[in-house]
Design brief:
With 395 residues, the chain is an all-alpha fold. Among the domains are: 90 residues, no CATH class; 128 residues, no CATH class. It is 62% helix and 2% strand. It is built from 22 helices and 2 strands.
Length: 395
């Protein structure tokens, strides 16, 4: 425990004293043991031995996650402590007060100007912030230098943090060069795709369109499609819809550049939300094309999206989407859906849309839907509505 000349009385010293109390109750264990067992355990943060030393010496105020991790780790080794939940909450309360106190006597580290310095700061603080900052809109070779150093040191969480930051800190004009360099490096398989997908999911439609133009100009069609697919991860489906509309208006529709999408599946909910936004944006003609392009053939995903459009009150779009899906996959696809594990309510909605569009579903196929007695709509034929319970077997 450092003296009062190093850490004067106050919430910082109180927090440090409580950490040292748990540290002593736990053994105390060696710094390397602490670091290695935290790394191997199920904790909220990782701390190398240098960072543990700086925290226990009062040189660094831990983050909330680092404090929680140390408290829970020490309590695992200290049967006479107050328990991990209670100790973590108590230390967090002191930590909150320490956050409001002046930090004049705690060490402050300058901003990194080199990769080595950024690594030292990250090691000392237990935070990847310096690494993210030095990679922001930087030369791709510097980014790879940082990723190499993190891989060699066995710091996967820091590497993940840096990779995730690239799509947010790079201007769209720098992404093609960055992803090209990363894509040629065998150590980072899949990273290029993550950066492109995350860019489309995090940035505006106009920025994604700008990047799309650069990728197409470079002949990188697969990367363009990865970017487009990634846009379905955007938290605002209206941005994805705007992106697709801009692509089509600019002559860059995905389906015009590659006949069939065979990459990662687009989540059904996301695609349905984008389809709704396309309708609201006044581009219903894109719904059918987009849904069929991004859904697998002989799969029920297009049917499910049609049902979501129906539930949203977009009946005409539900009709056209379902008709297109059945034209693509055949009417046997309808029978397969009725015998699937889909919810009965969805099957009844499916039958309703089929009847509304005059698509033939015979009684035996209807029975595959199960619980037809509760089918609420009736069967429409030649303008007449029939109760399915009263139909003869050969109707």
């Amino acid at each position: 425990m450092p003296g009062e000349d190093a850490v004067p009385p106050g919430p910082h010293r109180e927090l440090l004293a409580e950490l040292h109390r748990l540290y002593r109750l736990a053994g105390p264990p060696g710094l390397r043991k602490i670091s290695e067992e935290i790394q191997a355990g199920d904790f909220n943060a990782t701390l190398n031995k240098n960072l543990v030393s700086r925290i226990l010496n009062g040189h660094t105020l831990p983050t909330a996650l680092q404090l929680d991790t140390l408290a829970r780790y020490f309590c695992q080794l200290a049967p006479h402590s107050g328990g991990p939940e209670a100790e973590s909450l108590r230390l967090t309360d002191i930590w909150l007060r320490a956050q409001q106190a002046p930090l004049a006597l705690l060490e402050t580290l300058p901003a990194a100007t080199s990769v080595d310095q950024a690594l030292r700061i990250a090691s000392a603080t237990g935070s990847p912030s310096s690494l993210r900052e030095i990679c922001a809109n930087a030369d791709p070779h510097r980014v790879i230098e940082v990723l190499d150093a993190l891989k060699d040191r066995g710091w996967p969480k820091f590497a993940t943090s840096v990779i995730e930051s690239l799509s947010e800190t790079f201007d769209f004009t720098g992404i093609p060069h960055l992803t090209a360099e990363i894509g040629m490096n065998s150590r980072y398989s899949g990273v290029k795709e993550k950066v492109l997908s995350r860019f489309a999911a995090k940035r505006s439609a106009s920025e994604s369109v700008g990047l799309a133009r650069l990728l197409i100009a470079a002949g990188r069609i697969e990367d363009f499609l990865t970017l487009t697919r990634g846009s379905f991860g955007h938290q605002d489906p209206s941005e994805t819809a705007a992106f697709l509309i801009d692509l089509v208006d600019s002559g860059m529709a995905p389906w015009s550049l590659k006949d069939e999408w065979n990459g990662r599946r687009v989540p059904t909910t996301a695609l349905a939300q984008v389809a709704e936004e396309l309708a609201h944006h006044g581009h219903p003609e894109l719904i059918e094309t987009a849904v069929l392009y991004w859904t697998p053939r002989f799969d029920f995903q297009a049917v499910q999206i049609a049902l979501e459009l129906e539930k949203a009150g977009l009946q005409s779009h539900a009709d056209s989407t379902l008709r297109a899906a059945l034209r693509r996959s055949g009417l046997l696809h309808a029978k397969d859906y009725l015998s699937s594990e889909a919810e009965k309510e969805d099957k009844r909605t499916f039958l309703h849309i089929m009847d509304r569009n005059g698509e033939p579903i015979d009684p035996e196929e209807r029975r595959l839907a199960g619980n037809v007695d509760n089918y609420p709509f009736g069967i429409i034929k030649d303008g007449e509505t029939y109760n399915p319970r009263l139909l003869p077997p050969d109707w």
